[in-house]
Design brief:
The complex is a heterodimer.
Chain A (H helix, E strand, L loop, with lengths): L1 E5 L3 E12 L7 E8 L4 E6 L4 E6 L3 E3 L8 E5 L8 E4 L2 H10 L10 H36 L2 H22 L9 H14 L10 E5 L6 E4 L3 E5 H6 L3 H16 L2 H20 L5 H34 L5 H13 L9 H4 L4 H9 L13 H8 L5
Parallel strand pairs in A: 9-11
Antiparallel strand pairs in A: 1-2, 2-3, 2-8, 3-4, 4-5, 6-7, 7-8, 10-11
Helix pairs in contact in A: 2-7, 4-12, 6-8, 6-9, 7-8, 9-11
Chain B lengths: L17 E3 L6 H17 L5 H15 L7 E3 L3 H37 L6 H36 L1 E3 L2 E5 L3 H17 L5 H13 L2 E3 L2 E5 L11 H18 L4 H32 L1 E3 L3 E5 L3 H38 L8 H8 L1 H37 L1 E4 L20 H6 L6
Antiparallel strand pairs in B: 1-9, 2-3, 3-4, 4-5, 5-6, 6-7, 7-8, 8-9
Helix pairs in contact in B: 1-2, 1-11, 2-3, 3-4, 4-5, 5-6, 7-8, 8-9, 9-10, 9-11
The chains are: A alpha+beta, B alpha+beta.
């Protein structure tokens, strides 16, 4: 083994022991390698001194994350070749590291980038297609096939789960049972059903909770929370909300949403992998997708509500007023949850509701003020 | 660790008759690699995980040196990422449709079964059934993914410059696993050796090193010997149950049953190790090269138990350190007001945001640290034990083996990544 200096600081070596695998057979060969900085190449001699191979220095690549303690080299600018040299001589290793510029360089061809681009596009498209088109469409198609009486049973099961949650939160009665209030409420709902066929009887109930919220469950259950009745300034506001929820029931939105959510939930966690930063993103993404999907559904329920309010003789303006009421209260954190989050109020939706008002027509109150008082007292014990 | 074959003279002339396996990682290097790649994975919201896995494999492969020559892992992170994207598109469509359909069936069944107003038991039953239904439907995909992942890893593994490979036969593997899985469940686990042997044979008979083929010989019934501790454990469990039931001695019977339970766990590990030894001893390469394994189940259990204990101690240490840091932040951010008011409310008011961010950051750091600890103190040592006790017998014919063409799997082990069925490495 010889060490020599070339030029100012260029050092090279000759006849350093190394192991060589030719990439053709499983034979391990003892070879000698020489680094020639002048001619910019690494020469491999076999034990008899015959030249085996010559590797240009710029094509040399080292295997990375190698635990061997030595240096494993291969040659090839784009695809690493089959042959390998394993060096263990520390000084030779440092010479090679100093002389070869591209040891750790990886070259990715344009074709590979193209492929990556195509498949990123394809997977984004597949995700979008599944989440926004196929799963919702499938959910809608299948929901129609579920017999109403079975959906009603699913609804009562969901109701029982909700009951469990609320009875854990607050001891005592979670359901408001004042019979006068209940009767007035049912009368209000009855009036809003004019001219509509529902697949199942509508059951409306009030939950004793301060949240400003109302929602429809599968099977024709409509739940209103006490907070929403308290914030309403007139019975028509409550009627508007009920009409909107009836719209969801008429379109069987709750069961469609349940089916859709089941399909979407798994898909996102698939994309983002297991528990690391991905989980947070998955949650955020799911919320966004739910909001995006629901916009069209909400608009349809709005239209239904406007039509039914008009039929019941209540001014559609009530819906506009209620949205404006919510918009004013938006800043209050108490209202940040509940109906506002699932039904984002907007000037646009309010304006749309105002358009439905027929100026030539005179509207009436939805219930008498006595009945409205009864509804407001529905949770009183 | 001594190599039977050393670097003296001509390789071909003094080819050793056997090669010893040797696993020689530097623990600290492995730890920092796992920690660093884990941190990068978090920072990139999981995208770096393909490169992280690849780098870990490169390190582990190059630490494994039968006869002194290390394995080389030639897979790349980019290729893994691409494979994941491809698999994602397929699984996306499959599982999205599947979920909706299963839910539909579920709601229909739900309505059918629930008759009374308070059948919460039935809810639970149906929901459990649905979960298992979804699991069963995804099961074939998981087995498919396992075979393809193994094929990908083989195709990206080289030793002495030659590639390993596996035939493209994932579909055949999938339906066979389903079949043996059914036989296994119907026999209450009694047919475990049949499933283990036949599936291993299916894979081994399709494995290659260069142009040389592997073959699995032996008898599946021979694996019953490896199950003996499971049988004894079941006997002890039954004895305990009998003592409780007939002898009315609950305390004694309970203790006997606990012993039986522990014995059963040992029995499972024993089966893993012993069946591996049998299957290894009956693998043949090119009809000439044989292998032996002297792995010990006691050693594997010891590594595992010591590893868990060590990690528990380290995690407690980390929690204390983190708690101290957290307290400092809380004091700095909250400005403890001692003169007036309730100091606790002051602290909690002041550190709301800091605490929230700190908690998220802390739990992520803890996850990465624990992941790295598990690799360094459990997965790698167990793999190391298997490698160190592994021997290639009659190694001369290896010299005659020639290279084979590369296997270009575009989907890499993407299915395994998407379904999260990869092993430790």
């Amino acid at each position: 083994m010889h060490w020599m200096s070339v030029g100012h600081s260029k050092v090279a070596f000759t006849w350093v022991d190394a192991r060589y695998f030719d990439g053709l057979s499983a034979q391990r060969r003892q070879v000698f390698v020489s680094l020639d900085v002048e001619s910019w190449r690494l020469t491999i001699h076999d034990s008899s001194g015959a030249e085996l191979d010559i590797w240009p220095l710029e094509t040399l690549r080292q295997l990375r994350d190698d635990a061997g303690g030595g240096l494993v080299l291969c040659s090839g600018a784009v695809d690493p070749g089959e042959a390998r040299i394993v060096l263990s001589n520390a000084r030779a290793i440092s010479e090679i590291k100093a002389a070869c510029p591209n040891l750790t360089k990886t070259t990715v061809t344009g074709r590979t980038w193209g492929k990556i681009g195509v498949w990123i596009g394809a997977s984004v498209a597949a995700v979008a297609l599944m989440i926004f088109v196929i799963v919702p469409a499938l959910a809608e198609q299948l929901a129609v096939l579920i017999p109403p009486e079975r959906e009603a049973k699913v609804g009562s099961a969901v109701l029982r789960q909700i009951e469990r949650v609320f009875s854990e939160q607050e001891a005592g009665d979670w359901h408001c049972t004042n019979s006068e209030g209940q009767m007035a409420l049912e009368q209000m709902v009855q009036a809003l059903q004019q001219g509509q066929e529902f697949p199942y009887p509508i059951q409306v109930g009030v939950v004793d909770n301060e949240m400003v919220n109302a929602f429809a469950l599968p099977g024709g259950h409509i739940i209103v929370m006490r907070g929403l009745i308290e914030i309403a300034e007139a019975p028509e506001h409550l009627a508007a909300v009920l009409a909107h929820e009836l719209g969801h029931v008429a379109q069987r939105d709750p069961i469609v949403q349940a089916l859709r959510a089941a399909g979407t939930a798994g898909l996102l966690s698939l994309v983002l992998g297991d528990a690391t930063g991905g989980t947070v993103l998955a949650l955020a993404g799911e919320t966004l997708i739910a909001a995006k999907n629901s916009r069209a559904v909400e608009a349809r329920a709005d239209d239904f509500a406007l039509a039914q309010l008009a039929k019941a003789g209540v001014s559609p303006e009530a819906l506009a007023e209620f949205f404006e009421l919510l918009l004013e209260e938006m800043g209050d954190p108490v209202f940040g949850m509940g109906w506002i989050s699932s039904h984002p109020p907007s000037a646009e939706r309010a304006a749309h509701a105002r358009e439905a008002v027929q100026t030539a027509r005179s509207y009436q109150k939805s219930v008498s003020s006595q009945e409205w008082q009864a509804i407001q007292q529905i949770c009183a014990k | 660790m001594t190599y039977t074959s050393t670097l003296q003279g001509e390789g071909a002339a003094s080819a050793p008759t056997h090669l010893n396996g040797a696993f020689l990682p530097e623990k600290s290097k492995l730890f920092w690699l796992a920690l660093w790649t884990g941190a990068l994975t978090i920072v990139t919201f999981g995208i770096y995980r393909f490169w992280a896995r690849t780098r870990l494999r490169r390190y582990i492969w190059s630490s494994t040196k039968p006869g002194g020559d290390s394995f080389e892992y030639t897979g790349t992170g980019l290729e893994k990422f691409l494979g994941f994207l491809i698999a994602l598109v397929v699984i996306m469509v499959y599982s999205g449709i599947l979920q909706v359909v299963l839910d539909f069936i579920g709601y229909n069944l739900w309505g059918e079964v629930i008759s009374g107003p308070n059948d919460s038991m039935d809810d639970a039953l149906i929901q459990t059934g649905l979960t298992y239904g979804a699991g069963l439907a995804i099961l074939p995909l998981i087995f498919f993914a396992q075979y393809r992942a193994r094929r990908y890893m083989m195709s990206r593994t080289r030793w002495r410059g030659l590639r390993f490979a596996m035939d493209a036969a994932a579909l055949g593997y999938t339906w066979r696993v389903m079949l043996y899985f059914a036989a296994w469940s119907l026999s209450f686990g009694l047919l475990t050796p049949l499933a283990t042997f036949r599936l291993e044979k299916y894979m081994t008979d399709r494995m290659w090193y260069g142009d040389a083929r592997f073959e699995q010989t032996g008898q599946w019934t021979a694996l019953y010997a490896a199950m003996k501790h499971q049988f004894i454990a079941v006997g002890v469990l039954l004895l305990g149950a009998a003592i409780i039931y007939f002898g009315q001695a609950v305390a004694l019977g309970g203790n006997v049953m606990i012993a039986g339970g522990l014995w059963l766990i040992f029995g499972f590990v024993y089966y893993q190790v012993e069946s591996f030894k049998y299957l290894t001893a009956h693998k043949v390469l090119e009809g000439k090269v044989h292998f032996t394994s002297n792995a010990s189940s006691a050693r594997v259990i010891r590594i595992f138990v010591l590893g868990v204990a060590l990690i528990a101690v380290l995690v407690v240490g980390l929690i204390i350190a983190f708690g101290a840091l957290f307290g400092l932040f809380a004091l700095a951010g909250g400005g403890l007001d001692i003169t007036g008011g309730d100091p606790w409310t002051e602290i909690f008011a002041g550190i709301g945001l800091v605490a929230g961010l700190g908690a998220i950051f802390g739990s992520l750091v803890a996850l990465v640290c624990i992941g790295a600890f598990v690799i360094v103190f459990i997965s790698a040592p167990i793999l190391g034990h298997y490698v160190d006790t592994f021997r290639v017998e009659n190694a001369e014919p290896l010299e005659q083996i020639r290279q084979r063409a590369g296997d270009n799997m575009v989907d890499a082990d993407g299915f395994a990544d998407a379904l999260d069925v990869g092993g430790a490495f």
